[in-house]
Amino acid sequence: MARSFLLEILTPERSFFSGQVTSLILPALDGSYGVLAGHAPTVTAVENGVLEYCTVDGRWHIAAVGRGFVEIVPDAAVLLVATAERPSEIDSKRAERAMARAQKRLETLPVSQKEYGFSQGALARAKARLAAKAKARRNRKS
Could you tell me the domains of the chain? Predict the structure, then answer.
């Protein structure tokens, strides 16, 4: 059996997940970041994107997560993120509308720095939701 570690995924609204996992793949500033049991202590930023983790029963789970931070120690990882959603909780049509609105705002000039940052974040969150939903659909088919 693969070595495991405790994974906790927390948002301001809820404890999204708490349990033993064998691996974790999270969206970081410079791409995907993989974690296994015994990982060196690290603190890093989490970006909007798709998070994957494998529970000790060998099942992979997918989530769309918002920005935040992760603290990793050899026997645990704690993610503090703005949002975390399972593919079953994501409304694809709503995410597509949010993505279209954000893209339209970004194409409209002039935009303030604040509006630009807000629109970039909204676009990234919508893309993460759609990517998580699509990945879950592909995994069910294989």
Answer: 5-85 (2.60.15.10), 87-141 (1.20.5)
